[in-house]
Amino acid sequence: MNGSATWPNFKHRSYGSKSMNTKSKGNIGENVACSFLRDKGFSIIARNYSKKWGEIDIIAIKDKKLHFFEVKSVTFDPMLADSSHKAEDNVHGFKVRQIRRMVETFLEETNRGLDSAFSFHILCVYLNFGSRSAKVRWIENVIL
Fold it and tell me: pLDDT digits over 79-98, tens only?
């Protein structure tokens, strides 16, 4: 599922892609992703849930089912578009193992049990700082 998302309304920040570090771009991408998910009817219950061994970007609930989201944000300039780079390529084997462990930890910590129904998804957020627009590509139901 693809779609556009609302560009976050931040104040007192520079949006030029050259002046922004990766963490700042990631935060903007996660804000765009949260807006996208709320528009799709999800309730965000946690952001940046972290332990020593990993992090889950967004945990949401919809129709009583938990959804775990990994957000990958990339700067996209249509004038310099390189279709060979895909944001989801950054979710590799080691990252998937970390996420699996984080899901198990969250389920145990919140007393939901390891047999709880959940889904894992990747949200690829393409940020165009020139036009202050974003596109979101949703890769649904990734197997952990």
Answer: 555 555 566 666 667 778 88
